[in-house]
Amino acid sequence: MLQKIYDWIDERIDLQPIWRDIADHEVPEHVNPAHHFSAFVYCFGGLTFFVVVIQILSGMFLTMYYVPDIENAWRSVYYLQTEVAHAQIVRGMHHWGASVVIVMLLLHTLRVFFQGAYKKPRELNWMVGVLLFFVMLGLGFTGYLLPWDNKAFFATQVGLEMAQQVPFIGEQLKILLAGDASIVGAQTLTRFFAIHVFFLPAALFALLAVHFILIRRQGISGPL
Amino acid sequence: MQRGKGMKFVGDSRIKQGPTASRIPKDYSEYPGRTEAFWPNFLLKEWLAGAVFLIGFLILTLAQPSPLGGLADPTNASFIPLPDWYFLFLYELLKYEFASGNYIILGMLGLPGIAFGALFLAPFLDNGPGRRPQQRPIAVGMMLLALVSVIWLTYSSAAPVDWEGRAEMDPPVPPSDVQVEIDTEHPGYAVYETSCLACHGAELEGTAAPTLVGIDYSAEEIADISVNGIGTMPPDQFTGSDEELEQLVDFILSVNESVEE
């Protein structure tokens, strides 16, 4: 039965090359911790992606309860923390994942940097990776406000004041993020929510796709 | 030998490129060593490593529930803002004289811009052929310098912070929709007015200090806190007689009781 379904699809879209591209490549010895324990440094990129997947899944479940509105945002998180079954674990995963992903990203960046793996022909992928780092920091910044507790509110206020001091475009930048030149309030929360849940994840997925396609095309860098 | 997708495997410093060697990179299978198929051999091991990581991560999650402070109160003037830990180094940088005041643009955009710009353009700034760290001392030195600076800035920003005190000052107490009834006729109210009202508010709602509604303290504990302080509350806020202290405690408890009903 499964074979029949496979054949039916394969006949139409020729699955073999797609499958080979994803799965049928060889892992060289120098990146395989089974052969050289020190090769665990090559795990950081994969672990970053793993935590990103955790973030996406836990975030999807959090939005089932979260309400991006200043009256109810804090209450919905409080409800989540105290009433909903296992929600404390899901929110905990999202909260700690946000920190762990930065740590993993940093370790991955340092591994690539100190091994000089960004040198020709991988310059493009390095730049895509740095952009991914920025997107991740943006996700951290916008996500920090969403529980709408005191530490979130005041940290964001400081962040927006800093954005305001950017020469020439500061005022516009602040209005774009906060929805108002002086108030950090209802508009700010909905905008941060939209940025956190739609805009930045879209950028993240696009950049991740490029990052992985480039890895597949170029292969992993050789041993030092 | 050409196998698989003919993956390009570039920049292997163990393989010397001969004078006539072509620029076409070699295939994995032409390299020395034990290569392994990604599917399913390597993925199974990776899966295992991922599972171990996930267990550690879940233990962290269970051991340290994610924090939630009190509902944001824009009128709270005493709250000291602090960003998430991975922004602390940028925040701390602005406390230096050369990066604040008139030089705020330098501290806010200049220095981080140079650092992150250099990180972004690293392949073009460090464009020599050598990949080993000792072959590119400048790039590696700059990175180590940046790394030490970031760690130092983060440390000097986080070390003096009283994290527990901050969490204590900002507990996740749901804002009560119950109307607090203040009996100004109560003998303890006059004492409250002189000793506590400035910080704890006219309706015990808390202004500079936390709210006194919904607190979980016994009469003795409240009396002790009034005299000796707690957390960031200094001692000797109350300096009246024992009788007045008793009235004060009774007043605070009576307000709490009226809310509970």
TrEMBL record, chain A:
Gene3D superfamilies in UniProt: Cytochrome Bc1 Complex, Chain C
Domain Cytochrome b/b6 N-terminal region profile per the UniProt entry, residue ranges: 5-224
Keyword Transmembrane: yes
Highest taxon in the source lineage: Bacteria
UniProt xrefs under SUPFAM superfamilies: Transmembrane di-heme cytochromes
Membrane spanning residue stretches: 39-67, 96-114, 126-146, 192-215
Record's keyword terms, sorted: Membrane, Transmembrane, Transmembrane helix
PROSITE patterns recorded: CYTB_NTER
PANTHER family documented for this protein: CYTOCHROME B (PTHR19271:SF16)
Protein name: Menaquinol-cytochrome c reductase cytochrome b subunit
From TrEMBL, chain B:
Signal peptide: none
Pfam families in the cross-refs: Cytochrom_B_C (PF00032), Cytochrome_CBB3 (PF13442)
Record domain Cytochrome b/b6 C-terminal region profile: where: 28-160
Mode of membrane association: Multi-pass membrane protein
Protein keywords: Electron transport, Heme, Iron, Membrane, Metal-binding, Transmembrane, Transmembrane helix, Transport
Classification via Gene3D superfamilies: Cytochrome Bc1 Complex, Chain C, Cytochrome c-like domain
Entry's localization field: Membrane
Domain Cytochrome c per the UniProt entry, residue ranges: 183-256
Main location: membrane
Transmembrane segments: 47-64, 103-125, 137-155
Matching PANTHER family: CYTOCHROME C-553-LIKE (PTHR37823), MENAQUINOL-CYTOCHROME C REDUCTASE CYTOCHROME B_C SUBUNIT (PTHR37823:SF4)
Protein name in the entry: C-type cytochrome
Organism for this UniProt entry: Oceanobacillus luteolus
